[in-house]
Write a structure and sequence with these properties.
The protein is mostly helical. It is built from 27 helices and 2 strands. Keywords: Membrane, Phosphate transport, Transmembrane, Transmembrane helix, Transport.
Length: 765
Amino acid sequence: MDSIYFLIMVALAALAIADLVVGVSNDAVNFLNSAIGSKAISFRTIMIVASIGIACGAIFSSGLMEVARKGIFNPGQFYFDEIMFIFMAVMITDILLLDFFNTLGMPTSTTVSIVFNLLGAAVAMALIKIGAQNGNFTDVINYINTDKAIEIIVGILSSVVIAFSIGAFVQWVSRLLLSYDFQKKPKWTGAIFGGIALSAITYFILIKGIKGTPFADQTYGFINGMTIKDFLETQVYGVVVVNFMIWAVISYVLIMFANTNIYKLIIGVGTFALALAFAGNDLVNFIGVPIAAWQSYEAWVVSGTPASEFSMEILATKVETPTLLLFISGMIMVATLWWSKKARYVADTEINLSREGEAKERFQPNYLSRSLVRYSIAVSEWITSIVPPSVQGAIDKRFKKPVINLSKDKVLHLPAFDMIRASVNLMVAGILISVATSYKLPLSTTYVTFMVAMGTSLADRAWGAESAVYRVAGVLNVIAGWFSTAIIAFIAAGTILTLISFGKGAAIAILLFAAVLLLVRNYISYNKKTKEIKVEDRLRRAESSSIQGVIDESAANIANAVKRSNRIYSNSINGLAKQDLNFLKKNKKQSNKLSSEIEDLREHTFYFIKNLEEAHIGASNFYINAMGHLTDMSQSLEYIGKVSFNHVYNNHKKLKYNQIKELKEIDQKLQEIFDRTQETFEKKSFDKIDAILNSKQELYDLVLQKIDRQVSRTRTEESSPKNTTLYFSLLLETRDLMTAMMDLLEQYYQEYDSSVPPAKIEQEQ
């Protein structure tokens, strides 16, 4: 039995590496977003600066924070075997939970995850012990460090409101003072802002970095016999004032004599600071539990006491983590930062929620987001009504955004927000984390950095009338994810601990195998989701500024849409014929995907029209009509896919043999039309469209014939209302699909016909 604990240690070591990887993928959002979103410095430079910050933070980390040892439970109440089972349950749950959120692209808190995993597993083990001893279940509070646990939970939750409010206020004041034309302001304003921001960030670096160094707790005569750590925490105002004066002077010198962009410097230093804080503060979330387990194992081996009798009071003492382990952990985190695609996916979520202007919205509005936006608009209108017009006008002038020509190239390369907002994000997050650290208040760096970014976005008027409901819905979804993290972590860790406690080694082996399978499955699923779609399978936005250019350029889009329409329609009929639910479900997703891509093209209409040259303004009508026909086609396919899936999903009667035969006859005829159309647009042989249009009436007559036959069947032999409804729906929607496609072909042929000299047309025909 003793060998099982050695195997548990091996498993925990592997889990620690995996947790570092998934943890960095989740938490990279904390320190990368401001620099990436503002595009102040190159992506490569951002990654190098962040990597150095992570390495320094890990090496100078205090290592093992007490939360993993005695912050949540009272270790003296548990024996070695129980503690090892708790730690195993915590690590398995933590990895799976974080990887799940990473796959969704949702930032969550690794601190909340580890805290509630520990709490859930410890409570479950305590209840098992109490049950075995026939004790009172209220005694569970003796096993849990309730005061510390409540302090951590309250601190984390309160940081959400505080971070959002302070971020919004500081951004509003900063924008009021500097406006969007901050580059044109007198040089001394940049020096003052640089002094404030850099002094705040530097103090943050000192507070978060100094505590892990060997000389942090030594006394020094030149600071009245105090330790450097105590000096920084007690002489806050003096340190901040001197720091500000030094940095303000340095900023002024750099601006005046080196022509330095001080805002870029702030963003670079701030990114380093938050990366350092992440490694120093959150490292415990990834390796704290395995290291506590390792130190417990060492103490147990030396004691020679049976595992079920060796008390874990040793965890109540403080033990430093070897620097080598910290260094290895830092290198794993740096490697993950460079190679993890999920880290960038999670970062995209926050950047898009805080983006200036329009973006492809990931979240759909809900009742709560709409209500909050309406309430906010009402409050804003009330405030506007009581503020003197002159004051309101002056404020609006400071928030007036610069006019930018929204051409296709600039839309794709514009930063999500400017350097002022990026600087405020980093500065405020650094200040809040520094203050919390000074007063030993627990918080989540993810919650703080995310809510600061959301607060600055709101204050900066980035959430306009056309995006507010989506952005608010996104923030609410992320916050809901945070609460679900806590609930899921508590329940899942408790459940896994129970399985391990009763199943011992067999249960651990099965759970580890299941965890590996889930991680591999998530990895494969994510790769499929984010894999670069081939050019022929993706609709591309039009960039030409003339009708002829749009015709030429959009030919690939039409060929692609027709090819996919052909596949979706055929799959719907084949799925119904085979009653294959999974096949119909996948086909339904494909139709939804095509509709989504076409909708994205429609949303591009604004920028397309903006980019048109005056002489080719007619191209806008052509583009709008083409998008309308494509939308009609996609809606018909979406409906056909949906009703086909629902019919089989609800276990209704199968379509009769003759009905399937007739549908396949239509499908075969449609395939011929689709194939000819696809070939025509791929080769840009627009002169051949006329021949395809000549088959329009034949198609209509075929569908009408099938409708008449079904009417006769319904009157004489059909007994299933659902069957009849489905068949008529398919036929009518097929007719609408053909109408939309023929209208699209007619539009292209008319434009082609009018743009080519008559003699050439005759020759080609």
